[in-house]
Amino acid sequence: MRLALAAALLLSSTMLAGAQDAPKEFPAKLVGHALLPANTIIPAPADAPADLKVSGKFVQPGKRVGAVGTVMGTSGGRPTGLSTPFAGQPVQGFSGIRSLGNGEFLVLTDNGFGSKVNSPDAMLFFHRLKADFNGGKIERLATTFCMIPARRCRSASSTRAPRSAI
Length: 166
Known about the structure:
Structural class: mainly beta
Number of strands: 11
Order of helices and strands: HEEEEEEEEEEE
Helix content: 10-25%
Radius of gyration: 24 Å
Largest sheet: 5 strands, antiparallel
Shape: globular
Strand content: 35-45%
Distance between the termini: 65 Å
């Protein structure tokens, strides 16, 4: 009796596991898209340390490069058309995104250029963006820079006045 019950339980659990692994279809249709140009660079806040006014100075392993635009970026060994260091901070590279509704999003700019070692001049900040999926464009509504030593964030550098506080 116990052996038959154990075999039945094993068979039912195997069947359930198989049903969960069955391929599923999720029909979707792309109805629009919006792009933020890769070369979207914004100035650091006026009161930021001078060393943060230029970012990407440490992307060359073991070397600091201070001359803006002198190191060609690559992706998979191919040139990207963008060169570091940047005069300012790059907006691209989002590590977090939250829909605020009505085509607006709150996005956290990534933590730099790939690692702690090559990113000491990358600032932490987030943006409120407005996506126009029919027109294909993204507008940066507001940017908030975070000052980690002070454990606070403050708004700065926006393309237009924010409609409401974030």
